[in-house]
Amino acid sequence: MSDTNANPILRRDFLEGLGKLSLGSVAAGSLGTAAANGRQRQAQKQWKPVSSRKVRVGIVGYGVCRFGAAFGFQDHPNVDVVAVSDLIPDRRSGLMKACRCDKSYDSLEELVKDKKIEAVFVATDAPSHARHCIDVLKHGKHVMTAVPAVFGSVEQADQLVETVKSTGLKYMMAETSCYRPDCYAMRRTYQAGGFGKLIYSEGEYYHFHSRQIGSFKNWRVGLPPLWYPTHSTAYYVGVTGGRFISVSCRGYNAGIASYAPGANKYNNPFTDEVALFKTTEGGSSRMLMCKGVNKLVVERGRVFGEKGWMDGTEYHGVAANLPDLIRPPLPPGVSGGGHGGSHGYLSNEFIMSIIEDREPLVNAYEALAMTVPGIIAHQSALKDGETLAVPQYERSKA
After folding, report:
1. Quick check: helix, strand or coil at residue 60?
2. 117, 122, 125, 129: CA torsion to nearest 10
3. pTM for the model
C-alpha cells in the first residue's frame, strides 16, 4: 500500500477525496452513476490533433510537491521538453529524470537565455512567480505559471500586465479549479445562457493545517490565506469571466502556532479568511480559504443564477439544449493528473494557445482577476471587514 503522507501531491488528493465523500452532498448511488456515465461519454470521444508542431518547452521548479513534472508536458505529443531547472541539485536531477530530459540549468535566469526554448512553465516558489514570469516574457518566451499570479502585491500585478502587453506573448496561470469537472461544466452552462446572470456564487478552499508543507525559504509559513485565493475565486471568474468590484472580509485564528503574534514574516494573524464580494453582474460571491477546519481538505464551488444553479456537474434549471458538459479528451498519454484531473487540461490549453495563436483560458487579465481580489480581501480582514474597492484588470478596447 502506498504511503500518501510521503508524497504531498498524493496525500492532498487522497484527503480531498475523503473530504468530498464525507460531505454527503450527493447520494452515493447517484454520484457513482453520474461518474460512470461521464467516463463512458468521455471514452466515446476521440482526441483529434490540430498540428504536428512541437513547442519547445523549459520547466523550472520541482520542489517538495514535484510540481514541475506534475502537469504532463513531457507526455504531450506537441511538446519537446528542451531543458529543466531547479536551484537545488538533487531536485534538478529528479526533474530531469521525471521529464526524460538530458539538459538542465542551475537557475531560471540561465534557462531563459536558451534560444531553443519557446515557452517556460514556472513552478517556482509563489513569491517569485511574478518576477520569474516577467523575466521569461522579457526574454521572448511564452510562459505558464503555477498559482498565484502575484504574491500579496498590487504593484506586481501592474508590472506583470504591462509586461504581457508590451511583449505580446502568451501568459497563462495554471488555475486548477478552472478545469475541474464541475467548474468546466458550469462555464459551459453559463456561456450557453443556462444561468442568466449569477445572483450568488461560492468558492471554497479548505486545507487543514495538519502539518506545514515544506516551502522554499518557508514562504508558506503564516501565509495570509487569501493571498492564495484562486482555487476559490475561479468558481466565479473562471465560470463567468466577470469581476469582483468590492469586498468585505473577516479573518479568524484557529490557534495554530505559526499564526501567533510575531510568529510569521507576514505579521498575519489569520488562519482562515471568508470574503464577500460584489460582482460586476450585481450579485454576491462568497470566497474563502480556511486552514483551521479540522481534517478538511477540499476545493469546491457552487453557482446560483436567474435561470438555474449547479452544485457539482449536474444542472438544475429551465434552460434546454445545453452543450456537452463533459470535458473533452486529452491527447494519448497525457493524464488529467491531480486537482480533480485538471493538470493535463491546463498544459494542453497552454500549448494549444501557442499552436493556434490565441489567448489561453486563464490569461493575464483573468489570472489577476482571480488573484488580486484576495490581496484586497486580506487588507479588509485586517481592517475588521471594512468594504474596499478591488482594482480592475481588463484588456484595452483600442
Report:
1. strand
2. 100
3. 0.89
pLDDT tens digits, one per residue of 271-280: 999 999 999 9
CA distance 81 to 255: 44
Q: What is the DSSP string of 153-211?
A: -HHHHHHHHHHHHHH---EEE--GGGGSHHHHHHHHHHHTTSSSSEEEEEEEEEE--SS
* Domains present along the chain, CATH in parentheses: 55-173 (3.40.50.720), 176-315+362-389 (3.30.360.10)
Which grid coordinates are listed for 358?
490565441
| Residue 113: burial class (beta carbons within 10 Å; 0-12, 13-18, 19+) | exposed
Q: Contact at 8 Å (CB) between 122 and 61?
A: yes
pLDDT of 26 strictly over 90: no
The pLDDT assigned to 33 comes to 45
CA distance 169 to 141: 7
With beta carbons less than 8 A apart as the criterion, state whether 169 and 136 touch.
Answer: no
Q: What single-letter DSSP state applies at residue 395?
A: -
Looking at the chain, the number of H-run helices and the number of E-run strands are: 11, 14
The pLDDT value given to residue 283: 98
Q: Report DSSP state, residue 330.
A: P
Q: At what angle do helices 230-240 and 181-191 cross, to 10 degrees?
A: 30
- The cell numbers describing 247, all together, are 469586498
**Are 150 and 156 spatial neighbours (Cβ–Cβ below 8 Å)?**
yes
Task: Classify 142 as helix, strand or coil.
Answer: strand
* 10 burial type by CB count under 10 A (0-12 exposed, 13-18 middle, 19+ buried): middle
Instruction: Write the DSSP string, 270-297.
Output: -SEEEEEEEETTS-EEEEEEES-STT-E
